[in-house]
Design a protein that fits this description.
Elements lengths: L3 E4 L3 E3 L4 E7 L8 E7 L6 E7 L6 E2 L7 E6 L4 E6 L8 E8 L8 E2 L3 E6 L1
Parallel strand pairs: 2-11
Antiparallel strand pairs: 1-3, 3-8, 4-5, 4-9, 5-6, 7-8, 9-10, 9-11
């Protein structure tokens, strides 16, 4: 069973930056896709970004395009979310997820890390 562990969330002022990390517990883990999602209080979970583990252009939600960057370090089995120009509306619990198939749902989820952006 793969475990995903997020870290890096904290309180930050608007306009600031954060980098979230998501590490997989299995060294040989090789998913098809890795994604980031977020859930703000009182709202449904929403897609933020995803990338193919093998490479290629990532995909972003319109709300974060140009501000967030998803990347991965295969050697460390870790995916990152670099978040710049943060806004109060980015406040949410951020989750990473891994999919083993090319299409369809994500199979593994992390426990989430809280990001709070103050105005």
């Amino acid at each position: 069973q793969v475990q995903l562990v997020e870290s890096g969330g904290r309180l930050v002022q608007a306009g600031g930056s954060l980098r979230l990390s998501c590490a997989a517990s299995i060294r040989s883990f090789s998913p098809s896709r890795m994604g980031w999602f977020r859930q703000a209080p009182g709202k449904e979970r929403e897609f933020v970004a995803y990338m193919w583990w093998s490479g290629g252009a990532p995909t972003y939600a319109d709300s974060v395009k140009g501000r967030f960057t998803i990347s991965r370090d295969s050697a460390k089995n870790t995916v990152y979310l670099q978040m710049n120009s943060l806004k109060p509306e980015d406040t949410a619990v951020y989750y990473c997820a891994a999919a083993t198939s090319v299409i369809g749902q994500y199979d593994y989820w992390g426990q989430g890390t809280q990001v709070t952006v103050s105005s």
